[in-house]
Amino acid sequence: MQLKTTMTSHPPAVILDCDTGIDDSLALVYLAALHHAGEITLKAVTTTAGNVDAHQCALNSRHILNLLNLPEIPVAVGQPHPLIVELTTTPETHGDTGLGYYHAPTAGLELYPDWRELWRHNLTNTTHLIVTGPATNLATWLRGGTWPAHLTLMGGAYLYPGNTTPTAEWNSWVDPHAAKEVFAAAEASAPITVCSLGVTEQMLITPEILDTLIAELGTSRAVEFLPDALRFYFEFHQAQGEGYQAQIHDLLTCMIALGTIEVEHTDVSIDVEAESELLRGTTIADFKNHWGRPTSARLITNANIEQAHLELLRAIQVLAKHNTVR
């Protein structure tokens, strides 16, 4: 399926704001493929503190983009900690440095000095801002910056069991105050496309799927990190009783953001519990309009996962045709 574009003959611009762990790395691979194909223009990558600290996330992102032959795309470190609560990272899920058993080199990796400058220069009325980590950078930006014209957020569990506490998804739990601020701002601006845990958990990669993707790339080093990264992720999910496979939340979020797969959604108002320790990060969607508030979210309720796997394979085949580092 080709990328759907509207109102312009130019490929849409994209900024990815992420906390580069294992599933974020696959989102980067996908966006890089679309960039190489001329279907999007990946303008910048900025990082939040979440899976690992924001600086390490930026190093991971810089290294991956270099492997994907995109050294010209700037990567900047975002806010170093959540708005109010202390930072908690998740080495048990993504490894000590965020990419499982793979460790990105740190020497010689150049980072852009100012994430806000990247947003100021690249957030236009055609830019897609895709946030796959905690909403810290986004909330910070919205305290003085313009509302993004196309905004997609991975976060929240709603009526689905959480993956961090019984009711909370990781991104919303790490910085609940940021998520709460963002949804409050959306009520006065425009609804956010929200990819919730119950949808993104359906995007699974198995060892067999990984083998197929690696075979498609042949001798290219473009995704040399994937075997060691995903082996760690497979083991983590198996230890959680999810089977020897991996949930790739952020990759699916990018596909949804860019309209490359079919989805279903419902329009709702969303709030986030930020003060209660027990219910920290719990996301509430007002499905029956009890609050009478303006709509703040286009909540994705279903996605075509079969399409998503075909789209990932297509992206890998695109990368195989381009001059990736060998």
From TrEMBL:
Keywords attached to this entry: Glycosidase, Hydrolase
Protein name according to UniProt: Purine nucleosidase
Gene3D superfamilies xrefs: Ribonucleoside hydrolase-like
Lineage: Bacteria, Bacillati, Actinomycetota, Actinomycetes, Mycobacteriales
Entry-linked PANTHER family: INOSINE-URIDINE PREFERRING NUCLEOSIDE HYDROLASE (PTHR12304), URIDINE NUCLEOSIDASE (PTHR12304:SF4)
Annotated coiled-coil segments of the chain: none
Organism the protein comes from: Corynebacterium felinum
EC number: 3.2.2.1
Listed GO MF terms: purine nucleosidase activity
